[in-house]
Amino acid sequence: MRGIGCDAQTVCHTSEQEGTAMLITVTRSGGFAGREKLSALDTSGRTDAADLEELAKRAVTPVADGYRYRITVDDEVLDLQDPCLSDAQRTLIRTVLGVGA
C-alpha cells in the first residue's frame, strides 16, 4: 500500500508523556526509475526535536472535513486525502463515484 497524503507515507509514534521521542518514517516510491526510498528519523537528542515533532503532528493531521480515498487498480492500492489529489485522480474519483472530488 502506498502513502496516505500527498507524496509519502508518514508514520509517527509518540507517547503523551512529556520528554518522549518521536519516530518519523517516510517512504517515497515511484518516479522515473520506480525506486523506493525509506528513511526514519528519531527525534530524541535533536536540538530541533520540538519543531520536527510539531511539523510531523501537523503533517499527519487530516484536513478538517476532508475526504479520504482508496483507489485500487488490479493489485495496486493508493490511499489519498483531500486536498492532495492530482487532476487525474480527481477525474477518476468523480467518474467512478459519480460525485465530485
Task: State the main characteristics.
disordered N terminus; 5 strands; alpha+beta; 101 residues; three-stranded antiparallel β-sheet; 2 helices
How much strand? 25-35%
Q: Classify the helix fraction into a percent range.
A: 10-25%
Shape verdict = flat
Q: Count of DSSP helices?
A: 2
How much is the average pLDDT? 78
Largest sheet report: 3 strands, antiparallel
Spatial order of the strands forming the largest sheet: 1-2-3
The assigned structural class equals alpha+beta
Q: What is the H/E order?
A: EEEHEEH
Uncertain runs: 1-18
Radius of gyration: 16 Å
CA distance, first residue to last residue: 21 Å
Count of distinct strands = 5
Q: Care to describe what's here?
A:
This is Metalloprotease. InterPro entries: Emfourin. The protein has 101 residues and is an alpha+beta fold. It is 23% helix and 29% strand. It contains two helices and five strands, in the order βββαββα. The protein has helices spanning 49-60, 87-97; strands at residues 9-13, 23-28, 37-42, 68-73, 76-81. The strands form two sheets. Strands 1-2-3 form a three-stranded antiparallel sheet, with helices on one face. The model is unreliable at 1-18 (pLDDT under 50).
